[in-house]
Amino acid sequence: MFYKDERLALFIDGSNLYAAAKALGFDIDYKLLRQEFMRRGKMLRAFYYTALLENDEYSPIRPLVDWLHYNGFTMVTKPAKEYTDSMGRRKVKGNMDIELTVDAMELAPRVDHIVLFSGDGDFRPLVASLQRQGVRVSVVSTIRSQPPMISDELRRQADNFIELEELRDVIGRPPRDMPMEPRSIAANAQ
């Protein structure tokens, strides 16, 4: 699946990966995740995408964002948008698909292999375009949750599918009480 001399880039859809790991009952240890993929190839970049609630005094994801930024991850953030739906419920929207897609397309000529941490079917055209440019694409998500967190179309398009559950012993840790990604953003980012 991986070759030692290939140039790798990781693209992590933060809310999607958080939701998949939570569905499997563990948290991601990002230091171990980065080490694991550095071992698998020549990692050029590890991108992490998330929307942030800017108007809250404290965001539960802020400590993670800061830690990732200081520990070798390229952080891509934008303010989440809050709105009230037709039923009067407060909702938060924070979709990072366009930012991830643009960055992946820009980096494609400089890498051999992209690892996408997302199960969002909206990324299928991106994966197909990267493949046409000669980039191998592995997708990390899960089919072992109910419902599965990866779309069938994305899984079929990828060169490799990596089951997140099988990485649990390598990159996982027991879940914390306080979520690292706000549930409202994770639920609406897809």
Automatic annotation (TrEMBL):
Instruction: State the Pfam families in the record.
Output: NYN
Q: Which InterPro entries match?
A: LabA (IPR047140), NYN (IPR021139)
Residue ranges of every copy of the NYN domain listed in the record: 7-165
Name it: NYN domain-containing protein
Q: Which organism is it from?
A: Ruegeria aquimaris
